[in-house]
Amino acid sequence: MDPRRSARTVSDPKVRQVGFFTPAAPPERSCSDPPRQQDLIQPQSPSSTQVNDHFRSGDSLSPVMIPPPPHHHSDTLHRTALQVTSPKTAFSYSARTVTIPTENDDVPSSLSPSRKVVAVKSPSSYPGVRASSVPASELTTVSVVNLPPGISEKAGGGASVEVQNDRPVRSKSLKEKTSKAERRAMQEAQRAAKAAAKAEGTKASSAATKVVTSANTKPSKAAKPSSQKNDGSQFAASEKKVGDRAPEKDRKKDAPHPRMQYDDTSRVEKAKKRAVVKQTEVRNRVELFRHLPQYEHGTQLPDLETKFFELDPMHPAVYKVGLQYLSGDIRGGNARCIAMFQAFKEAIKDYSTPPEKTLIRDLTARISSYVSFLIECRPLSVSMGNAIKFLKNQIAKLPLALSESEAKATLVSDIDRFINEKIIVAEKVIVKHAVTKIRDGDVLLTYGASSAVEMILLHAHELGKQFRVVVVDSRPKLEGQLLLRRLVRKGLSCTYTHVNAVSCIMQEVTRVFLGASSVLSNGTVYSRVGTACVAMVAHAFRVPVLVCCEAYKFHERVQLDSICFNELGNPDAISKVHGREDINYLDGFVNRENLQLLNLVYDATPSDYVSMIITDYGMIPPTSVPVIVREYRREHLWS
Amino acid sequence: MDFQVVVLAGGSSKNLTPLVSKELPKPLLPVANRPVLSYVLHQLEQNNLKDLIVVVEGEDTALVVGAWISGTFIDRLHVEIAAVPEDIGTAGAIRAISHHLTAKDILVVSGDLVSDVPPGAVAATHRRHDAAVTAMLSSIPVSGPLDSGSSGGKDKAKKLGRYNIIGLDPGKQFLLHIATGAEIEKDARLPKRILRAVGQMEIRSDLMDAHMYAFKRSVLQEVLDLKDTFQSLKEDVLPYLVRSQLKSEALSNRTPQGEENGNEKVTSQNNQVFVSRILANSSTPSFHDHSSENPDGSASTRKTHKCCVYIASSGSYCVRLNSIQAFMDINRDVTGEADHLLTGTSSDPNNNIGPSPKLGTKTTVGPHCMLGEGSEIGDKCQVKRSVIGRHCRIGSHVKVVNSVVMNHVTIGDGCIIQGSVVCSNVQLQERVVLKDCQVGAGFVVTAGSEYKAESLARKEK
């Protein structure tokens, strides 16, 4: 890297700042691009304004994350505070508002019917069983969760079951009957309670339940002892409900910023509190990469697993995909993106708009909460970021007049269209382009396992071209072996080597085909770690480097190094060799203060080493990437 | 999460003969003064699983159990009770309620499981691998009392019977072989196909099938329909699924494809293949994929299903109450080292450890003991590592060590009870010595008698 840096004239501090990508990126950004880039792209200025416009307008549209809708949380806080206070105020008020008597009546009455059901039902249904005595047996409901009707379709969510139940009646009666002075007093009481709730801070929900219990237990003291148990369990139920809901809202509001600087301890602490997945951070991190999240591997999965049934708002399909990301069962930009979209599709199909909410807003918030869950499982790839951006844009564009089922159908078909056009057709086009670059007698080198490159090789083989393939691989993932296996099975002639031997093997290579996780607007190719190394060696040997990447993975970000954005893998993966128990030199050293293990996942290949990028818009030089980015955005986000 | 929970509570167990009776079926057998079923139900409740089907053997038992559940868990759980005839086995029980199962996956839990392993973990593993069945395995608990060597020999003999022989893949994620019950004595027979596909297999005998399974509903129902001789989930259904995981003809091939085709009407078939290929190529292949593809690379039509395992971490507690020894162990552990199972669970507030209801002078109650409400103990008694139920009357100079005494028991002066179980309403007259005995409910032990390693019960009328 070093010689290249010095050769380059543009190691401008401004550009570096852009790399960190604050939303208010200065518009001079495009000017600081190398001049040759401007030659190529004529309408530069519109593009830059568009870029900025975009930043400002869609605060939700950063590549790797979706910031939360800002007002949600405060809204709920407000609401719970209101509801909690209402019984109090009514209490302090007058006997006219009926709260305590009704509540008191409520307890036994809600209890007795279910008891009756048990008593009547169980004997009556048993004779049936006895008579039939065939294996088929009947079910008898012995215990029922006794929830008032309000809770099952809870919309905004009240703090307590009972309070919510009573609310409409009471508020109506209040409006009708209270005098002006009374109303003012009530307002004041509410305000005071709200302030108190706010003072409680994030623990508002728990405080709310406490208030509810006190409200609950007061009448039950007077009631007969049998109702006490019932009371307690109802409290438990309401507490559960609150507990379930609060984190969801929290998550929506403060999804951890994917570009959070993880060396900022206070923020990390905050994020950790919200996280669904328990994340234990590794102690010894490499200084340069402190700002990246690095978790103790092996702690997340079991913890997430135990919560399987507790994450109510999470859709099972999304949950499954998250688990698969976390455990590494699904990897690769295309596959992760497809898996995510298929999960979202399921979620959308099962979605129904809660009352008093609009589909557009609520579904966006729902998707955001899913996304932040997925981020906790594994940081998003650029392709996923773009795909999410697309989906949210589609949701936002839905006409308000559309019925729910129509809207859902539209979204599902949008998702299908995206997968179809942007991934499947794009890959076919890439293959068509790339095959023209393969001639008989070529020796093609590829690194890792890119789905696009694999298609190209297989297609060229089907066309009957005579060529040889060199598969370069690296530890610890050894994805190349899977590619190799598939290629060899198809009858291609292959050579397999590891990346340390790349300089030796490069002499006989005539083309290098590489996949990419993302292509950034300065032409940098962001890809599997080791790609840069291969590209540089190829460059030194004057072998053309062709990067195959679908256009939906392009991103307007500018990145000059692979430090500011990256992902850290499991450090154990490099300290241990799978299947080789005898290599245990690092046993017991892993937690030493002076040992730091670094397992990077991605690296950035500067555009200088890339001869050509093959994308679904054609074969372009790396300097033309901004055009693609702009065109793509025009087509998909503003259309 | 689209899971349905079936709790197999059982009925009267032969293994526990003197302890269980018509009035006190196995699900209600008190462990640390709470019915054993409540541990499972509570654990499910904590995991937010509130829709349960409890399957009980025998209608009378079902009535008793149902009454108890409705009394304890009203407003907290939505429980449906199904009574099945006795001796149809676990598979038969599921078959009987099969038409009530509608969710995508079924979680089957044994009602006698006392554990703190979250069921969610099993379910999550199941979902992650999209398995046909996922079984929970736990390490075999240390059996027998810690400090009394008296019953050591007997323990070993009993423990041997519980061993499973389990074959796992190197990643410890898939179940390749399982032998239970009588099969252990026979030679292990493995399908060659599985061995060839996996390459390496780890045979373990230190793991126990904890009888918590997640089944894909379609697979489970199909197996039960096809093989109507299958009696037990553990001994028939699970081994069958494991054996046939690489050549499942009827199983699981229809269902997933049918679902997917239904979902993807929009995309053409070709694209569908494409998508699935991308997904398949990017994920780590399991041995199932290797075996299902022919050497020339084309995926063959042979269908496979996955049998996964979730191995509980060594720190968690997981025991099944299926023998008297296990009953003793669980009582000891729950009051002792695994007391987190009790905290916060008390269905009524009097169930805490070490309240001293009414103790005579110079009576010592050691640690890890539990005394139920309303029990009275006379002077100069010693209680060590024991559970004593409610409303017991214990005279003076009594020694109770490593024992379980249930409710309403009267113990006369000068009795010595060691390593025994004394059921409800038993009357022990003066100077009775019991060592490693089980006394059935309502039995009267005459004064001065001594028993060692015997099972005393009233004659059935």
Automatic annotation (TrEMBL), chain A:
Residues 39-52 have a biased composition (Polar residues). Residues 1-76, 147-276 are annotated as: Disordered. Its main location: cytoplasm. Gene3D superfamilies: Translation initiation factor eif-2b, domain 2 (3.40.50.10470). It is found in: Cytoplasm, Cytosol. It comes from the Eukaryota. Residues 1-15, 164-186, 238-269 have a biased composition (Basic and acidic residues). Keywords: Cytoplasm, Initiation factor, Protein biosynthesis. PANTHER family: TRANSLATION INITIATION FACTOR EIF-2B, TRANSLATION INITIATION FACTOR EIF-2B SUBUNIT DELTA. Belongs to the eIF-2B alpha/beta/delta subunits family. This is Translation initiation factor eIF2B subunit delta.
UniProtKB/TrEMBL annotation, chain B:
It comes from Hibiscus sabdariffa. Gene3D superfamilies: Hexapeptide repeat proteins, Spore Coat Polysaccharide Biosynthesis Protein SpsA, Chain A. This is Translation initiation factor eIF2B subunit gamma. It is found in: Cytoplasm, Cytosol. Residues 358-447 form the EIF2B subunit epsilon/gamma LbH domain. Component of the translation initiation factor 2B (eIF2B) complex which is a heterodecamer of two sets of five different subunits: alpha, beta, gamma, delta and epsilon. Subunits alpha, beta and delta comprise a regulatory subcomplex and subunits epsilon and gamma comprise a catalytic subcomplex. Within the complex, the hexameric regulatory complex resides at the center, with the two heterodimeric catalytic subcomplexes bound on opposite sides. It comes from the Eukaryota. The lineage of its organism: Eukaryota, Viridiplantae, Streptophyta, Embryophyta, Tracheophyta. Keywords: Cytoplasm, Initiation factor, Protein biosynthesis. Residues 5-142 form the Nucleotidyl transferase domain. Residues 250-270 are annotated as: Disordered. Acts as a component of the translation initiation factor 2B (eIF2B) complex, which catalyzes the exchange of GDP for GTP on the eukaryotic initiation factor 2 (eIF2) complex gamma subunit. Its guanine nucleotide exchange factor activity is repressed when bound to eIF2 complex phosphorylated on the alpha subunit, thereby limiting the amount of methionyl-initiator methionine tRNA available to the ribosome and consequently global translation is repressed. Belongs to the eIF-2B gamma/epsilon subunits family.
